[in-house]
Amino acid sequence: MRGAGAAAEAEVVLEARDIVKHYGATRALKGVNFSVHRGSVTTLFGENGAGKSTLMKILSGVEQPTSGTIVLDGEPVTFADTNRAREHGIAIIHQELSLAPNLSIRDNIFLGREISGPTGVDFAEENRQTAELLEGMRLDADPTTPVGDLRVGQQQIVEIARALSIDARILIMDEPTSALAATEVEILFGIIADLKARGVSLVYISHHLEEALRVTDHAVVLRDGSMTARSTRAEIDLGWIVRHMVGENFDLGSPPEGHEMTEPVLQVQNLSIRDPDVPDRAVVDDLSLDVRGGEIVCLYGLMGAGRTELLEAVAGRGEVIAGSIRYRGEQLHDESIGRRIEMGIGLVPEDRQRDGLVQTMSIAHNLTLASIRQFLTRGLLSRRKEATLVERIVKDVTVKTSDPSLGIGSLSGGNQQKVVIGKVLATVPGVLLLDEPSRGIDIGAKAEVFGLLAEYARQGLAVVYSTSEVEESLSIAHRIIVLHRGRISAEFGPDADKEDIMAASGESVTV
């Protein structure tokens, strides 16, 4: 593998020169200059709305610039669409999965560019090539497996395999690890190293800053549509990135103080949950946990540790095979999901696009979806009551929108996440469960979300959130519960050491 010096001197293969992009009166990009080097990783940092996705869409042919020039191998080029960009060897892996869940892995990989044989599609050859790709990605799955049957992390690997299948020489990765387990991230980083050795150029976008530093050769920071900094890996650190993204003196907050905590409102005792993928195994095994009103508890662990399964079981999903869950002393074993919501248990799911939002609905209707019964009188919906609640929730969770009647797709990822949280808060929960609440949102939006959780805890809400980011575990939590293979391996206070938390989870300390 090339060293930092070789990466810094690598030939520039793709340039964006003075790129400007207007959407009506909005200037998304303001004269950005950006370069990609052969056989190296250029990481693009920035908050949501900084212009990262817009720039990548221009480089991959999804959008065209208002002005400016794209230069490939020293020659100006124009990409009328993504097909034209792919013909030049440029592929993009988007943050939100674009797979067809009803189709097989094979059919997703070759969708729109099927391999033809004498009698039609050569499925045997497609199977062979798919199996080869999956083996390289270390995904043990049959090529004919429907994508909808895969876990989110496995689907992300299929998305990456599809991009690699076109033999791209410039590969853009937009949040490629957002749903990957730690072992899957290591596999991806190994693939990145192999691609670099073959001369492939990569553009990498991630909100996981420490993780991104592991693969970065060149770093570029965008802020409000302008480039604020660029440098080589040898000259930067985490503080450099954050300073140029959001300014000085930034942190994710601290555990809220100055309020009384109540007796436990949530009591989990000796809980075991069946693994849906391996029926004779418990994905959570003999776990006990109490959470008090006004307390923030963080569940830290790697993917597969049982964090998601525990939160979903409390909310009414998953098969509990032993133990009990009590809310305010009442046994929940036989209660439906709907009944648990009525009682005061709210869950913000890990995948907001799939499980938290309805993409065809407005911001307002997404906010009130779980609390619609509040506005019904004798079967009739009170629009006035609904509008009053929407106005209050938009203000309380600080959703940045000019009009709640706009589609949910008009919002950034961070504001969409606030809508999901607001939807759950509209049900007036006593305990708020959040599964990876910062997934796919930038560091500024992350701080806003964590500040919101701290404020609701001060008001007496019990908050439980899960994360695989150690910095997040050391932010607002009063207690950090570390899970490893379905069991609690350690418990820490807010003054814990990062290395101790990571070691308890079975994670090797790297950055």
TrEMBL record:
<dbReference type="InterPro" id="IPR017871">
    <property type="entry name" value="ABC_transporter-like_CS"/>
</dbReference>
<dbReference type="InterPro" id="IPR003593">
    <property type="entry name" value="AAA+_ATPase"/>
</dbReference>
<dbReference type="GO" id="GO:0005524">
    <property type="term" value="F:ATP binding"/>
</dbReference>
<keyword id="KW-0067">ATP-binding</keyword>
<feature type="domain" description="ABC transporter">
    <location>
        <begin position="14"/>
        <end position="249"/>
    </location>
</feature>
<protein>
    <submittedName>
        <fullName>Sugar ABC transporter ATP-binding protein</fullName>
    </submittedName>
</protein>
<keyword id="KW-1278">Translocase</keyword>
<feature type="domain" description="ABC transporter">
    <location>
        <begin position="266"/>
        <end position="510"/>
    </location>
</feature>
<dbReference type="GO" id="GO:0005886">
    <property type="term" value="C:plasma membrane"/>
</dbReference>
<keyword id="KW-0472">Membrane</keyword>
<keyword id="KW-0813">Transport</keyword>
<keyword id="KW-0547">Nucleotide-binding</keyword>
<dbReference type="Pfam" id="PF00005">
    <property type="entry name" value="ABC_tran"/>
</dbReference>
<keyword id="KW-0762">Sugar transport</keyword>
<keyword id="KW-1003">Cell membrane</keyword>
<dbReference type="InterPro" id="IPR050107">
    <property type="entry name" value="ABC_carbohydrate_import_ATPase"/>
</dbReference>
<dbReference type="GO" id="GO:0016887">
    <property type="term" value="F:ATP hydrolysis activity"/>
</dbReference>
<keyword id="KW-0677">Repeat</keyword>
<dbReference type="InterPro" id="IPR027417">
    <property type="entry name" value="P-loop_NTPase"/>
</dbReference>
<dbReference type="InterPro" id="IPR003439">
    <property type="entry name" value="ABC_transporter-like_ATP-bd"/>
</dbReference>
